[in-house]
Amino acid sequence: MRHPPPQRNRRFPGAGPSGLLPRDSGLLLRPPGSSLSLPGVGGRGLYLLLAVLLDRLLGDPSFGHPVRLIGFLGEAGFRVFKSLRALGGLLTLFFCGGLFVGLVWGSVKGVPWLEPLWLFYFLALTSLEREVGQVFEALKGEGLSAARKRLRYLVSRRVELLDETGVIRGALETLAENFNDGFCGPLFWYVVGGLPGTAFYKVVETLDSMFGYPYGPYRAFGWPIARLDDLLNLVPARLSAVFLALAAPFCGGSFFETLRVALRDAPAHPSPNAGWPEAALAGALGISLGGPIPYPRGWEERAWLGEGLRAPRLEDYSCALRLTRLAALWALATALLVFFF
User: Mind listing the pLDDT tens digit for each residue in 77-133?
Assistant: First the structure.
């Protein structure tokens, strides 16, 4: 499982006097001793481009990731507030959100160029591709047992009960769901709420992955966190399905068929949001996802996404990877249109 427009000129919409950089980007030369202001709308567009480029080149760092601070704060909040059940989850949410968002926002006030660095940490598309890709590489080169071990790091399913098709389904569903959680969601909240909005979204996502389970010791504690996560992903998840549909014709699929499958099957998913990118991926590739899934607590009977379509195959990963990358470009282009125009 488991946040007054710049003046325009004809050379470059949103540009300043140089015609090259947004007036409020914080990048134009200023008189000595003047303060460096936070970026305007156009500057945020440049920061977003830089963050996406860093994510593409580096992926998530193996050490020193600041999002680990959210996990540390979340564990502390659980120890202190767990006896309060749902109220404790809510208090942990505000405790973690206030501290982390305050840290992020305070840091960029003095050093605006920290903004693209923070945003880079909040994006996770490249690392997602790597992790899912390792499942398929293991399946292709080392066999089913090795692929199950790789998948174990990504899902909470009983992977030892999955056959090859089940492993492929689990990996593709992870790719689709986290296309929203790791890219479209942060992007949407950066457009809507700037860096504080993205930081808060990341807090909720992280806490939901820790405590947002409808069973076990976190059931009551994680309930308000899971509900807020559902709310924050309500729009991004549906937009992710649209972006996947826009990318489908470039990957041998159909825009209208992708949307048809998403609209038909996504509401049957137990999550109000995860079904949208998963069903869209199924429709775009012409495959079936979902179905019965083994969890530690037993088998869960889920509706099929792409019901009646063929079972996924090993070679579908290359198409799914191309599809999500193109969909990410559509999402990025949409965000940049908002920022620059």
Answer: 999 999 999 999 999 999 999 999 999 999 999 898 899 999 999 999 999 999 999
Q: Which 3 state secondary structure label does DSSP give 300? A: strand
Dihedral angle computed from the Cα positions of residues 47, 53, 55 and 57, in that order, rounded to the nearest 10 degrees? -150
- For residue 10, being part of any structural domain is answered with no
Number of domains in the chain: 1
Q: What gap in Å lies between CA 324 and CA 130, rounded to an integer?
A: 13
CA distance 280 to 261: 6
Give the closest residue to 336 by CA, choosing from 10, 12, 9. 12
State the CB neighbour count (10 A cutoff) for residue 239: 20
Q: Which pLDDT value is given to residue 213?
A: 86
CA geometry: angle 156, 161, 166, nearest 5 deg = 75
Q: How many alpha carbons fall within 13 Å on the CB side of residue 51?
A: 27
Token code pair at residue 114: 């920290």
Evaluate whether residue 15 is within a structural domain: no
Q: Rounded to an integer, what distance in angstroms lies between the CA atom of residue 113 and that of residue 297?
A: 47
* C-alpha–C-alpha distance, residues 266 and 76, integer Å: 36
Residue at 272 is within a domain: yes
Assigned token pair, 332: 């990025």
Q: Which residue is associated with the tokens 């492929």?
A: 168
> Does residue 23 fall inside a structural domain?
no
The answer to whether 5 and 45 are in contact (CB under 8 A) is no
206-248 pLDDT, tens digit each: 999 999 888 888 999 999 999 999 999 999 999 999 999 999 9
How far apart CA 174 and CA 153 sit, in angstroms, is: 11
Give per-residue pLDDT as tens, 259-304. 999 999 999 999 999 999 999 999 999 999 999 999 988 999 999 9
Domain hosting 294: range is 41-340
